[in-house]
């Protein structure tokens, strides 16, 4: 299946490189807003309200309202819920820099967007990034194999034995060894009882399979929480409660859809199912990178 957006239309699936988005957000803040190299290791309630924060290396500070935006393995999350994460896939990534010059054949194969090659319980994908590189991603079901089993190109090439060499060339051309990661998710429907002075946004609040929604929802969480806090500065507790209710209601169907798309993509009939998904329901969020 070949999908090309109409010129000037986002088709519901705009893309931006992660580093560009990060710079865009960081550059909109005063320079000293983000304090780098401070890994939170614990947050404990202060007797007079607010939180005592302890960072790796022993640095301490405090705050009145703690917003956990600390991603998939959030430390702040444990103040609100102890739901377990479960593995949903293994993703091994490779990068091919300066692809137009070094691998024009691969540049042409992938084109200006995404290429998805869907097999039986396995996917080989490549995405053009804004810096002229390709990011290659190999998705496989989460299994009991140690993650180190995916750290070598020959091991990945074995998993794609019998595939067209024009496709497996994407693995061979990787600039260095693959970086494998276990992709995890929180249970669909996760919610918690509101607690004064603390909440979560983004993956900390709703880690779900990466099918193209997580960053969007994280940004929407941030905007919604901020606007409620600003609108109600005298009562941050009710602003947090209102944000959480709206966020849970918004996220649960999206988490359900993400789990279904993830399961569909790594199934024995994935190729047919994905074509049907795109042709029958073109307005649904895409299984992105
Ligand atoms: C392979 C892959 C592809 C994806 N593709 C898409 C996509 O196409 N579209 C989309 O919308 N989403 C996508 N996602 C999901 C998206 O990346 C996440 O949902 C999004 O980054 C969540 O943003 P966040 O700010 O909550 O967490 P993160 O982006 O993970 O940011 C958390 C930040 O907190 C910091 N941090 C972590 N722990 C601590 C600590 N203890 N102390 C201090 N700081 C800490 C981290 O260093 C990091 O900077 C993808 C995810 C994966 C894994």
* Proportion of helical residues: 25-40%
Structural class based on helices, strands and sheet pairing: alpha+beta
**Number of E strands:** 10
| Unreliable residue runs | none
Topology pattern, helix = H, strand = E:
HEEEEEHHEEEHHEEHHHH
Q: Estimate the strand proportion.
A: 15-25%
CATH class of the domain at 86-185: Alpha Beta
Let me know the average pLDDT. 93
Radius of gyration: 21 Å
Largest sheet: 5 strands, antiparallel
Widest beta sheet: strand line-up? 6-7-8-5-9
Provide the CATH topology of the domain at 86-185: D-Amino Acid Oxidase, Chain A, domain 2
**CATH architecture field of the domain at 86-185:** 2-Layer Sandwich
* Cα-to-Cα separation, first versus last residue: 17 Å
* Bound ligand species: flavin-adenine dinucleotide
**Tally of helical segments:** 9
Instruction: Assign an overall shape.
Output: elongated
In short:
The protein is α+β, with helices and mostly antiparallel strands.
Give a quick set of tags describing it.
D-Amino Acid Oxidase, Chain A, domain 2; 10 strands; alpha+beta; 5-stranded antiparallel beta sheet; 289 residues; 3-stranded antiparallel beta sheet; elongated; binds flavin-adenine dinucleotide
Task: Please describe what this structure looks like.
The protein is α+β, with helices and mostly antiparallel strands. It has a domain of 100 residues: D-Amino Acid Oxidase, Chain A, domain 2 (2-Layer Sandwich). The strands form 3 sheets. It has a 5-stranded antiparallel β-sheet. Strands 1-2-3 form a 3-stranded antiparallel β-sheet, with no helix packed on it. A two-stranded parallel sheet has the order 4-10. α7 runs antiparallel to α8. It binds flavin-adenine dinucleotide. The site of flavin-adenine dinucleotide has 21 residues, from α6 and α7.
């Amino acid at each position: 299946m070949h999908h090309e957006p109409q010129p000037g239309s986002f088709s519901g699936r705009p893309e931006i490189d992660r580093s560009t988005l990060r710079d865009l957000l960081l550059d909109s803040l005063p320079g000293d807003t983000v304090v780098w190299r401070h890994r939170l290791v614990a947050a404990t309630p202060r007797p007079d309200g607010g939180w005592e924060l302890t960072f790796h290396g022993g640095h301490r500070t405090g705050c009145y309202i703690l917003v956990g935006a600390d991603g998939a393995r959030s430390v702040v999350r444990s103040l609100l819920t102890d739901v377990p994460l479960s593995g949903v896939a293994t993703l091994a990534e490779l990068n091919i820099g300066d692809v137009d010059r070094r691998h024009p054949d691969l540049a042409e194969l992938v084109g200006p967007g995404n290429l998805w090659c869907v097999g039986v319980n396995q996917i080989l994908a490549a995405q053009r990034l804004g810096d002229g590189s390709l990011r290659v991603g190999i998705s496989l079901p989460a299994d009991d194999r140690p993650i180190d089993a995916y750290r070598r190109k020959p091991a990945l090439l074995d998993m794609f034995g019998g595939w067209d060499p024009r496709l497996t060339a994407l693995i061979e051309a990787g600039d260095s060894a693959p970086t494998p990661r276990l992709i995890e998710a929180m249970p669909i429907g996760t919610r918690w009882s509101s607690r004064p002075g603390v909440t979560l946004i983004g993956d900390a609040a709703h880690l779900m399979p990466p099918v193209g929604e997580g960053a969007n929802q994280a940004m929407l969480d941030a905007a919604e929480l901020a606007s409620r806090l600003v609108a109600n500065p005298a009562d941050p507790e009710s602003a947090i409660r209102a944000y959480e209710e709206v966020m849970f209601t918004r996220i649960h169907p999206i988490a359900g859809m993400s789990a279904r798309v993830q399961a569909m993509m790594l199934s024995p009939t994935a190729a047919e199912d994905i074509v049907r998904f795109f042709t029958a329901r073109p307005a649904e969020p895409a299984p992105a990178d």
